Amino acid sequence: MSVYVTVGSTGFDKLVQTVSGKDFLQALSSQGFRRLVVQYGASASEFEPPTTRSDTYGMSIESFDYTSRPSQLIEQADLIISHAGTGSILEALHSGTPVIVVVNHELMNDHQSEIAHELASSGYVAVAEPATLVDAIARSTYTGLLPYPAADPRPIGEIIDEETLQAFS
Predict the structure, then answer these.
(1) Rounded to an integer, what is the distance from CA 91 to the centroid of its chain?
(2) 140 φ, ψ (degrees, to nearest 5)
(3) Residue percentage of the chain with pLDDT more than 70
(4) Secondary structure of 5-66 as H, E, C letters
(5) What secondary structure letter does DSSP report for 2?
(6) What was the pLDDT predicted at 169?
(7) What confidence score (pLDDT) does residue 162 get?
(8) Would you state the pLDDT for residue 153?
(9) In contact, 74 and 52? CB cutoff 8 Å
(10) Which of 31, 44, 92, 158 is 20 to 30 A (C-alpha) from 21?
(11) How far apart are CA 73 and CA 84, in angstroms?
(12) Residues 6 or more apart from 24 whose CB is under 8 A from it?
């Protein structure tokens, strides 16, 4: 089983530090995960995973700063751990893969917290912070999440026309 971690287009030092730690790797391994793929963005200097097989708990670890194929990595994952950027969350949710959203409270007035907690209260994602992520993995908070509703594929103009006609009928 595979885990994909993404910090998006910026960096998220605390998340990257957490996912490169032995406690995190042990928690993943104990849940049956064997592959960890980390997109660390501008936090490259913070990604320092253990180098011995025993210290990685047998996990295969891949890492990179940015990718042109996030959709492919998302589709291959059995669990997605994402920063709380709206685009990243929605892309992960549309894949149908369980998502743990990790909020970066240090960004622009803590704007990520609201969307993360709203989606969690609706049962679509689990929410953690870097300090609670290991526990969230160990407690399998990502299981039993609801599927995110599919987007309406109709063009927006058609929807507006329909709503307008209903409003004036």
Answers:
(1) 9
(2) 55, 45
(3) 94
(4) EECCCCCCHHHHHHHCCHHHHHHHHHCCCCEEEEECCCCHHHCCCCCCCCCCCCCEEEEECC
(5) E
(6) 67
(7) 78
(8) 67
(9) no
(10) 92
(11) 18
(12) 18, 133, 134, 137
Instruction: Tell the burial category of 137 from Cβ atoms under 10 Å away from its Cβ (0-12, 13-18, 19+).
Output: buried
Written as one string, the DSSP assignment of 88-146 is: HHHHHHHHT--EEEE--TTSGGGTHHHHHHHHHHTTS-EEE-GGGHHHHHHTTTTTTPP
The torsion angle over the Cα atoms of residues 151, 157, 163 and 169, rounded to 10 degrees, is -150
Q: Which pLDDT value is given to residue 138?
A: 93
Helices 112-121 and 86-95: crossing angle in degrees, nearest 10, is 30
- In the beta sheet, which residues pair with residue 63? 38
40 alpha carbon, distance to own chain's centre: 12
Type of residue found at 147:
P
Over residues 85-109, mean pLDDT: 89
Q: Which residue has the tokens 């064997």?
A: 34
Residue 163's pLDDT is 77
